[in-house]
Design a protein that fits this description.
The structure is a homodimer of 200-residue chains. With 200 residues, the first copy, chain A, is an alpha/beta fold. Chain A has four helices and eleven strands, in the order E-E-H-E-H-E-E-E-H-E-H-E-E-E-E. The first copy, chain A, has helices at residues 48-56, 66-69, 120-131, 142-150, and strands spanning 6-13, 17-19, 61-64, 93-97, 105-106, 112-116, 136-140, 156-162, 170-171, 181-188, 193-199. At the A-B interface, strand 10 and strand 11 of A face strand 10 and strand 11 of B.
């Protein structure tokens, strides 16, 4: 049995949104969504640096929703290779949930996208199998994180609580049910309050 | 011109609710709402003690919505004196927003409830006039805080971010528009992450 810890790291507005409204191919994180991520743009506050480093540290494997991998509506074109250019920041196998079968796509820098058509649990199993004792990270988007939370799949949730109000968009916790969350580490900069929650 | 700083202190669930669903006379903070306040029940964690002390420290005056003072539906009975017994925890003048004129009610321990029928701004003016240089605190409930936030009336918002998910209820930030929030102090216990925001 795999010992993989399952983690997830999301930046969330103070009013609970992880993406702004009107998500599109041109703006996949929605109107205002970029404001959630400014804490890890240069120049970083010294408090935010280790949090960013942890965000970017390679995990054993990732599970990713189809909306995180490609444009929201319709199937991807045959040459769609994700939003991230030739060298995505994952450097590990990424299991993408989709209804469309697709051969794996090997990218530069150690990232390979695998496409899983038989659901979240199957993707988790495959991710844990390749991760071994390393972490499996739920890379997003919000609906995949909600699914993972609602089935109790996440052991540790890191939230960057960003002091902005988006007013509308996609909420992280809608419909996930109750969870036993315990804050185990808090660090704060003017740009975000980073809280690591253990989910038991 | 008054120099009163305007403060507000709310306990909020990780999914953004400051009261649970199904608020009633028997349960004015809604189903599950009490879980938001456990951080200041005995025995307190040492980190939570000064936050509780600050919550209870007398302010110069308070502004309070009608749902915070009395049952949500209908006018209060003539002998309604609030939820708090003979000695409410305010120890200062409290300006209650209502559509029903009422003589002031003087309670034990320095709390006097004044009833303001001409709106939020009028209540703020009266509160600032009696507070002098001391703080005016927006005591709640959520709709009054939203109103105060939406007109830019609050200088400092203290949030106790409690690691529970209520799933439904009353949200603090719905419809308040955008605000420039700056976290200026964070302390955390296992029961809550307390963030003091300056609103500029």
């Amino acid at each position: 049995m795999s010992m993989s810890r399952v983690t997830c790291h999301m930046s969330i507005s103070l009013d609970g949104f992880v993406a702004g409204p009107d998500q599109s191919v041109d703006n996949p994180i929605g109107v205002g969504g970029l404001r959630l991520h400014k804490w890890h743009f240069e120049p970083l506050h010294e408090v935010d640096i280790p949090v960013r480093d942890n965000l970017l540290a390679p995990k054993g494997a990732y599970v990713m929703g189809r909306n995180m991998f490609g444009p929201i509506r319709g199937a991807w074109s045959d040459d769609w290779r994700g939003w991230w250019g030739d060298e995505p920041p994952y450097h590990a196998p990424v299991f993408v949930l989709t209804h469309h079968a697709h051969d794996p796509i090997e990218m530069d820098g150690g990232t390979t996208f695998h496409f899983v058509t038989d659901g979240f649990e199957a993707a988790m199993e495959q991710a844990k199998a390749v991760a071994g004792d390393a972490e499996v990270d739920i890379a997003g988007g919000a609906s995949t994180v909600r699914q993972a939370l609602s089935v109790g799949a996440i052991d540790e949730l890191m939230l960057d609580i960003v002091p902005v109000l988006l007013g509308s968009g996609e909420r992280l916790f809608d419909g996930v049910g109750d969870l036993a969350l315990e804050p185990v580490e808090v660090v704060d900069s003017p740009h975000a309050t980073h809280v690591r929650y253990r989910i038991t």
